Amino acid sequence: MKFTQLPVATAILYVLYPQISFAEQTTDVEANLEKIEIVGIRQNRISEGATGLALEIDETPQSISVISAEQLKNYSAFNINDALRLAPGINVEEWETNRTNYTSRGFEIKNTQIDGVGLPNDWGIVTGAMEAYGYEKIEVIRGANGLLTGVGNASGTLNYVRKRPKNENGGEIGVSVGSWDFKRLQADYSLLLTESGSWAARFVAAAEDKESYLDGLENNREFFSAVVDGQLTDNSTVTIGYSYQDADTDGNTWGGLVYNYTDGTQAKWDVSDTTTQEWTMWDTINTSAFVEYNYVFANAWQLQASYNFRGFEEQDKLFYASGSIDKDTNLGLSGWPGRYDSEVDADLFEIKAFGAFELFGKEHQASFGVSHAKSDDVMYQHPFDSDNTPAYGPTPAFPYDLDAIPEPDWFTPVLYSDIEQKLTRYFGSAQLNITDKLFTMVGFNAIEFERSGMNAGASIDNDESETSPYIGFTYKLNDDLNLYASYSDIYQPQEQADYNGQYLAPTKGTNFETGVKASWFDDALMTTFAYFTAEQDNFAQYAGLTEDGIYYYEGVSIESEGYEFEVTGKITDALNIVASYTHIDVTDENGDDTNKWAPRDVVGVTMDYALTDAVVVGLNGRWQSKIESTDYNVKQGSYALLNAFARWNINDQVAVQANVNNITDEQYINSLQTVGYYGAPTNGSLTLTYKF
């Protein structure tokens, strides 16, 4: 059926309900449009996070994994760190208690989106534990993805899909308790605001308080979100949303443990040991808001205009300890206190059009648009008297008491950095059906990037522009087997500075991926095999310290390659599985291994099995090969972690669930990207959920 042959009302519904024939009864359809359209949109939401087009995963010429709401529930993944530990091919580099990097294929993921819209994440760092309960699912797109942001390296993109209103009234309340005095309360409710269902709202809230296996560490977090959507006219809808998170931490670390003895051997500490002091703290506030307008034209093309705001505030008092430790005295560490106040505001406007068209007797689809993002990042530093501050200089023998080192007398704050960034992006993509079996994905991103201001006393003034192409092919060998290949440019502005305090020029390069995707058991199970390579020039690498003790970097050339295998779906009606294996090689311009903090081999398995209609059990396991720190001469051998859950659905409304993590009580350093600390020992939680 051709869209251009349909009346406007019928064309809208054809997009929403492609399985329905509208050859007859179009009058009745149009008469009920107001009641049906927004309901259909809610039921048939398709994420376009990978390409900007409504493609199935097996049709997309790139590696994509989805962390579902069911997986988040099964493994009590209440924060983003725990959620991404379930993702194939992703490493959660939690190198200190309040800062984390997510990496893929040996590199930091710096592109983060919400509902397919986002800004590059400077440094790839996520500060604090971010609430996961406000998201329906998380999409993980691995490899360079020029169609998404126009910038990026060879790692990937994370797309967080918000919870939005449903078509019926209902929700749930959950209460959790667990190890280290863990307490949590969460609620999720969807509400129809009109009798027809044309307007609805969804509210999500969570409050969590927890101590830690690490001495002195305490965290609490409060989260709230509200989303309202509705139908303005027969052809248009609007969605408005807001979220707020307030997270407070006491006893946090700045950096990780020190594992270096002066004789060159590696130290081993108790899992609970920490370098922090009781006066340390790190409080953050994250705010987001968005407005999204959709209009459907008579030919079924859609226009979407959106505005997104992200706000971030932080206040912290920090204590950093570094050096080498004498085996006999446990002396040798030197302390460095810090206190900072930061505020980041980001605004993003985007307008795009997308839909289907006919050419040479075949139907294709396309998307194109423009976006403009602006962010302001201001940081203040509190100086102190280094000559009269015990926290600056030698520390007592490690491990020392939490009250061993007094808090400095902080001076009036001074401006440390003030940076403004602007990113304008012109983009387009199309799926062209060459034959019934072969289609191609083509796309481009043209960006203009500006960065100005001051950072640590150095003046910043960058203007850059780049056009990046993307091309991919998918070939259907049969109804169940697809071959694919894709190519994209790499272009990544960098936050690392050279010896003179100037930002390095952008990383540039190419990314290539090819693979095969197969469906099994009537599409119940999908397998993916991917081979990928990337070349990146002027990639920032740590080069040393300036005379003022500031890190500086130099650009190097890096090549990477690897392969992935993933199985996801149902093996039987009772058994769900996600299993993956990833292998990577990363070498520098001399052909030597680099980024050794990234494991070369990772195996992951997540499964759940319905023992009965009321009882579900599951197991999550992850094994990684040995790693080592490039700059600190610290090594971590290969290790495996096992987590499990069991849930009893007492009736349609009440369920109780038990989770146990790190069943084998493995002791491991959780990251060597810089130097981390020990991961959590065996722990558990119990959750009671009531649906209404």
From TrEMBL:
<protein>
    <submittedName>
        <fullName>Ferric-rhodotorulic acid/ferric-coprogen receptor FhuE</fullName>
    </submittedName>
</protein>
<dbReference type="InterPro" id="IPR036942">
    <property type="entry name" value="Beta-barrel_TonB_sf"/>
</dbReference>
<keyword id="KW-0998">Cell outer membrane</keyword>
<keyword id="KW-0675">Receptor</keyword>
<dbReference type="InterPro" id="IPR010105">
    <property type="entry name" value="TonB_sidphr_rcpt"/>
</dbReference>
<dbReference type="Pfam" id="PF07715">
    <property type="entry name" value="Plug"/>
</dbReference>
<keyword id="KW-0472">Membrane</keyword>
<dbReference type="Pfam" id="PF00593">
    <property type="entry name" value="TonB_dep_Rec_b-barrel"/>
</dbReference>
<feature type="domain" description="TonB-dependent receptor-like beta-barrel">
    <location>
        <begin position="233"/>
        <end position="663"/>
    </location>
</feature>
<feature type="domain" description="TonB-dependent receptor plug">
    <location>
        <begin position="58"/>
        <end position="157"/>
    </location>
</feature>
<keyword id="KW-0812">Transmembrane</keyword>
<dbReference type="InterPro" id="IPR039426">
    <property type="entry name" value="TonB-dep_rcpt-like"/>
</dbReference>
<dbReference type="InterPro" id="IPR000531">
    <property type="entry name" value="Beta-barrel_TonB"/>
</dbReference>
<dbReference type="InterPro" id="IPR037066">
    <property type="entry name" value="Plug_dom_sf"/>
</dbReference>
<keyword id="KW-0798">TonB box</keyword>
<comment type="similarity">
    <text>Belongs to the TonB-dependent receptor family.</text>
</comment>
<keyword id="KW-0813">Transport</keyword>
<dbReference type="InterPro" id="IPR012910">
    <property type="entry name" value="Plug_dom"/>
</dbReference>
<keyword id="KW-1134">Transmembrane beta strand</keyword>
